[in-house]
Amino acid sequence: MNDPAVSICIIGAGGIVNDAHLPAYRIAGFNVKSIADRDYQKAEGLAAKFFIPQVYHSLEEMVGGQDENVIYDCALPASEIAGVLQQLPEDATVLIQKPLGESIGEAKRLLEIAHSKKIRAGVNFQLRFAPAVLEAKKMIREGKIGELTDIEVYVNVHTPWKLWSFLFEKPRMEINYHSIHYIDLIRSFLGNPSGVYAKTFKHPDSPQLASVKSTIIMDYGAQIRATIHTNHHHDFGYQHQESYIKIEGTRGAIKMSLGVLINYPLGIPDTFEYITAGFPEWQSTKIEGSWFPHAFIGTMEQMILAKKGRIEKPENNIDDALDTMRCVEAAYISSEQGGISLPAV
């Protein structure tokens, strides 16, 4: 995928760029041409660390110095995406950091801007491209676990939210900025659900955060259970922290751990286990790479392939991302409306 004819211009120099975007692109051999940030010194620091040749003070300055053979990688908060899209040239290609806006209304506005300017836009829902997830999808395509009957995402960890201070100001937090990955992941396996049931929760130790825990059920009818359970406030050591995706079918099952979330930010190694009809015992296999940073290769690779015309559109295209945001919106509506009252006796 290393093609000097297609270069990447990074917009933003925050922690996610340092920890995931740029390490992933270095692994893949992608050509990062430039970086811009309001904090010029921060951008300069990343440029020096990752050998990026050009640093800009502003997006306007960056856009003015590019030809058409670039992909803009916008790693900014959702509230700033509309302004970025409006400054990009017609027919530009851009990878947008998730979420696609803070609400379904903002998501639709971003879609309208992209369509009106004929911008090829993708959204960085990268978990669907994690190496373990890609291996699970390969096994499913090959029929090794049969027809899918159950997808469960379970996260019981302690997340140090203070590392992302901007989240303390958000009226929507846990689902918008974390469980959204799992909603998108389940959609990548099963498509759109017919409905969503959800409840998102606060914690007394983090009153400034809108929520730190969620339980979500995505409705795929009577034959398939799809659930997401997240608790980011298990502050009792890491011995009983858990983080996994479990997929069951009629002929077998797959369970993969997400070690990066445990004892964060230190993490532990991932695991990948499976059982199939022909082998009565669980098997383990080593998967090269993890969610961070390796999954970030997949989202950018899709943009490069689309830019080159090798695929019609990226899998993580903005129209598909809108459906993930529709599910997120449904989850918040469900949480606000509450459950069914107990029937009268």
Summarize the entry for a quick read.
It is built from 9 helices and 14 strands. The chain has 345 residues and is α/β, with parallel strands linked by helices.
Word description of this protein:
- The chain has 345 residues and is α/β, with parallel strands linked by helices.
- The protein has 2 domains: 7-126 and 294-316, Rossmann fold; 128-284, Dihydrodipicolinate Reductase, domain 2, CATH 3.30.360.
- The chain is 33% helix and 24% strand.
- It contains 9 helices and 14 strands.
- It has helices spanning 15-28, 40-50, 59-64, 81-87, 104-116, 131-141, 174-190, 295-308, 318-337; strands at residues 7-11, 31-36, 54-56, 70-74, 93-96, 120-123, 148-156, 195-201, 213-219, 225-231, 242-249, 252-257, 272-276, 279-284.
- The strands form 2 sheets. The chain has an 8-stranded mixed sheet with strand order 8-9-10-7-11-12-13-14. Strands 3-2-1-4-5-6 form a 6-stranded parallel sheet, sandwiched between helices.
- α1 (15-28) crosses α8.
- The protein is globular, with a radius of gyration of 20 Å.
- The chain starts with 6 loop residues before the first strand and ends in an 8-residue tail after the last helix.
Short key terms for the protein model shown above:
345 residues, Rossmann fold, Dihydrodipicolinate Reductase, domain 2, six-stranded parallel sheet, 14 strands
Q: Which range best describes the helical content: under 10%, 10-25%, 25-40%, 40-55%, 55-70% or over 70%?
A: 25-40%
Number of strands: 14
**Mean pLDDT reading:** 96
Largest sheet: 8 strands, mixed
Going by CATH, the homologous superfamily of the largest domain would be: Dihydrodipicolinate Reductase, domain 2
Order of strands, widest sheet: 8-9-10-7-11-12-13-14
* CATH fold field value of the largest domain: Dihydrodipicolinate Reductase, domain 2
Q: Mind telling me the CATH class of the largest domain?
A: Alpha Beta
| Second rung of CATH, namely the architecture of the largest domain | 2-Layer Sandwich
* Straight-line distance between termini: 66 Å
What is the C-alpha radius of gyration, as a whole number of Å?
20 Å
Question: DSSP helix count?
Answer: 9
The ordered H/E elements are EHEHEHEHEHEHEHEEEEEEEHH
The domain count comes to 2
Gross morphology: globular
> What is the beta-strand fraction?
15-25%
Q: Low-confidence stretches at least 5 residues in length (pLDDT < 50)? A: none
Q: Structural class of the secondary structure composition?
A: alpha/beta
